[in-house]
Specification:
8 helices; about 230 residues; globular; mainly alpha
Length: about 230
């Protein structure tokens, strides 16, 4: 992996850690009705995403957090499983959001979420719209593009330089980025962070009962591995 990608990944992870606490990165969700294993399953079949959507999601996650010597990537960490599980739970259905109109998609971000789509609807509509754009501009689905082109498409999506026919490009990227961060750093109970790989990478203790004595020792490496909510140790 190039030094540029490695530096970008470290920058992404640093921003993600600052953006939200590692134990409960679930946005406005709650504990899901179907809990996940702490360890990677032999295979996972999505309960919400269709096969083409699943292909896009896995390809995009692999570009957002690729595996390298620092730690596992989003795919190894089970982030796709985390997102899929969330789509069939209260969060995916917008159960904790105010979803009544009127909606003003062009309003400033300071006014909050202004689209009529729940998270699961946003993915379904947004991925389909982006795939139509990829077919028209690159002749292939996103998952079949080479890595450099995928990076370019995601960059254009983030900057709002792609005109999607169903919703603002930045809205799709923001949803994907937020859920990627959540799945990568959340407790394995929710389907991501398999084997607590991301916690081990950043030295986070997880759900240990007491580690405050180490909080007063800046710069000193925490000597114990993380513990999950279920009490499993890495």
């Amino acid at each position: 992996m190039s030094e540029h990608i490695s530096n970008s990944r470290r920058k992404f992870l640093a921003c993600a850690v600052v953006a939200a606490p590692a134990v409960s990165l679930l946005g406005s969700s709650v504990i899901p009705s179907v809990l996940a294993s702490d360890r990677p399953p032999a295979s996972y079949r999505p309960g919400y995403f269709t096969e083409p959507e699943w292909g896009f999601l896995n390809a995009a996650l692999d570009r957002l957090i690729p595996a390298n010597a620092d730690g596992p990537g989003a795919l190894e960490a089970g982030v796709a499983e985390f997102i899929d599980r969330q789509m069939n739970d209260a969060y995916g259905h917008g159960g904790f959001w105010y979803m009544q109109g009127p909606f003003f998609p062009d309003a400033p971000e300071s006014l909050g979420y202004q689209l009529r789509f729940t998270p699961r609807e946003l993915y379904r509509v947004g991925i389909a719209s982006l795939e139509r754009w990829c077919a028209a501009n690159h002749g292939k689905p996103f998952a079949e593009l080479d890595g450099a082109t995928q990076d370019a498409v995601l960059g254009q999506l983030e900057q709002g330089r792609i005109e999607l026919d169903a919703l603002p490009a930045r809205a799709l990227f923001a949803q994907l980025l937020q859920n990627t961060r959540e799945g990568y750093f959340a407790d394995p109970l929710y389907g991501g962070n398999k084997g607590m790989g991301s916690w081990k990478m950043i030295g986070f203790p997880g759900a240990r009962a007491d580690f405050m004595d180490w909080a007063e020792q800046p710069g000193k490496v925490y000597p114990y591995g993380p513990v999950s909510i279920r009490g499993n140790r890495a």
